[in-house]
DNA sequence: ATGTGC
């Protein structure tokens, strides 16, 4: 509910200092009155709690897809001064570098047929679902390289082409990775899973570009109307999950050790510049690199299938961009006219750097970075561009997706997976999933409409629409 | 999200 929040504009709301005790800064949420009806009190409280943590700068921020999460809300951004601020695993989440990438093909919708066959082939090619393993179990030394080098490791091993790397945020590799802080247990979980899709909201979709809203940006990003594309949404699997679990323990101890007062145990944190904070950051970066290698390997599998079955040249399937939804990064931002080094936590939020940012590909410098916002199963996904407004208002951030409305358990009670699969088929969307249970949990109705969420970030100027993508085939874990 | 709930 929006009650108790101060209205700044039709799409921006303030969570005043004092909403919970000890807030150092206010909160800001980008949200319409309509979507505000589903705003959870718990999520607002979590956003306010983040504002109590040491070193927070400017605002604790909520995107229109905000919902309740572990400690920090999902759809939240918190930036902390590197000198006196904190880093928190709860500000990143369990699925470190959960992210999404978009790849185009030269195929056009009108000339394309055989979606069922393609999805069935991909479903048997890309390992999918909880506990599934990749065709290859990597050695300890290979895993070490994966965690250090990320997407570039995969390309070097033949799972892609050199241009792929520069089309990833961070070039698909956080150089701060320190693998010595990744436990044996995390490595054991990670070794058989690189090149697997995972479960839940993770997916592999075949889509087409249904609408182009910004011709200039679409041209720069390399996407045309009616083009067949594929989108991959997944993360760091069991490795990132284990890294989060392991470091929550050490960070909880550090919270006590450094005398940091937190309003919720799930906000455990340590100074950015502390051994415990640096250890978590290094292990998180290693997990992020693993996730980039993972998405790169899946990209390769899909390209090989399309090359073989549709006669498309592998090199004609270009990576538009790869963004991360769950990460903490050290970035320089201008705050009240002066440059500051910040530890920016984006949890269920996407970087949306604007024109001229040195971090984005040079050939896109005049446009802004590509921003990819996936919809829920069977609904529109969007390609947008980053903006200067985002740099000024949200530390260069925007939303990450539709945002869940109902819990997995309630979704299972109210929806039949088989019925949803048939409904989608009637609408021309062919779904393969590891179980009907997953389809019920991921029913489009239990998510906010992606179009409404994207409308708000567009109206707020946090990222501007470039293209709308519609699914024709979906693989769900 | 996750070898799905301590």
Automatic annotation (TrEMBL):
GO molecular function ontology, one term from the record: RNA ligase (ATP) activity
Residues the record lists as binding Mn(2+) 1: 95, 202
Enzyme class: ligase
Signal peptide: none
Record flagged with keyword Metal-binding: yes
Catalytic reaction(s) noted: a 3'-end 2',3'-cyclophospho-ribonucleotide-RNA + a 5'-end dephospho-ribonucleoside-RNA + GTP + H2O = a ribonucleotidyl-ribonucleotide-RNA + GMP + diphosphate + H(+); a 3'-end 3'-phospho-ribonucleotide-RNA + a 5'-end dephospho-ribonucleoside-RNA + GTP = a ribonucleotidyl-ribonucleotide-RNA + GMP + diphosphate
Keywords: GTP-binding, Ligase, Manganese, Metal-binding, Nucleotide-binding
Cofactor: Mn(2+)
Positions with a binding annotation for Mn(2+) 2: 233, 325
EC code(s) of this entry: 6.5.1.-
Biological-process GO terms, alphabetical: tRNA splicing, via endonucleolytic cleavage and ligation
Chain positions recorded as GMP binding sites: 201-205, 325-326, 374-377, 381, 400-403, 476
Highest taxon listed in the record's lineage: Archaea
Active site as annotated: 400 (gmp-histidine intermediate)
SUPFAM superfamilies listed in its UniProt record: Hypothetical protein PH1602
Pfam families: RtcB
Record's subunit section: Monomer.
Membership in a protein family: Belongs to the RtcB family.
Entries under PANTHER family matching the protein: RNA-SPLICING LIGASE RTCB HOMOLOG
Described purpose of this protein according to its UniProt entry: Essential for tRNA splicing and maturation. Acts by directly joining spliced tRNA halves to mature-sized tRNAs. Joins RNA with 2',3'-cyclic-phosphate or 3'-phosphate ends to RNA with 5'-hydroxy ends.
Descriptive protein name: tRNA-splicing ligase RtcB
Species of the source: Methanolacinia petrolearia (strain DSM 11571 / OCM 486 / SEBR 4847)
